[in-house]
């Protein structure tokens, strides 16, 4: 079993013992999504796969949070924020924009990229380096700026 799934299980057990029912509900929900994907794909997910699911779950909740906040539903917004906080405990520390910019510039220099046609190869290299620690949309924006500027 992957280290991330073990961490989820351990946290779930601790939350159950502490009778933190809302936290238990969130963790079980995440585990159910992981299990469903494993069944659908007929494979056991490694840490990278679990990390992708956690990121997707966080992103879905952030979108819901934005909608609830915009519509004045603070009760539902607080619930979504609570779930985001719990899931975020299992995500690696996010990179700062300065760190991402430094990686982008280093990769462009390494590959000698000078035009937008080379953006794909730069993005593929950066995807591996920043897996789970940076939003691909931010990386894409910074690569475009660097190649156009």
TrEMBL record:
Coiled coil: none annotated. InterPro entries: Asn/Gln_tRNA_amidoTrase-B-like, GatB_Yqey_C_2, YqeY/Aim41, YqeY/Aim41_N. It comes from the Bacteria. GO terms for molecular function: carbon-nitrogen ligase activity, with glutamine as amido-N-donor. This is GatB/Yqey domain-containing protein. It comes from Moraxella macacae 0408225. The lineage of its organism: Bacteria, Pseudomonadati, Pseudomonadota, Gammaproteobacteria, Moraxellales.
């Amino acid at each position: 079993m992957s280290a991330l799934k073990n961490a989820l299980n351990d946290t779930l057990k601790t939350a159950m013992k502490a009778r933190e029912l809302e936290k238990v509900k969130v963790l079980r929900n995440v585990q159910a999504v992981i299990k469903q994907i494993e069944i659908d794909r007929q494979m056991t997910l490694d840490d990278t796969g679990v990390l992708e699911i956690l990121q997707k779950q966080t992103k879905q909740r952030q979108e819901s949070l934005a909608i609830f906040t915009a519509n004045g539903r603070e009760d539902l917004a607080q619930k979504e924020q609570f779930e985001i906080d719990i899931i975020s405990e299992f995500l690696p520390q996010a990179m700062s924009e300065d760190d991402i910019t430094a990686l982008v510039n280093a990769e462009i220099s390494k590959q000698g990229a000078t035009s937008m046609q080379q953006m794909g190869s730069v993005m593929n290299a950066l995807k591996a380096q920043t897996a789970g620690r940076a939003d691909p949309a931010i990386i894409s924006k910074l690569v475009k700026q660097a190649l156009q500027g």
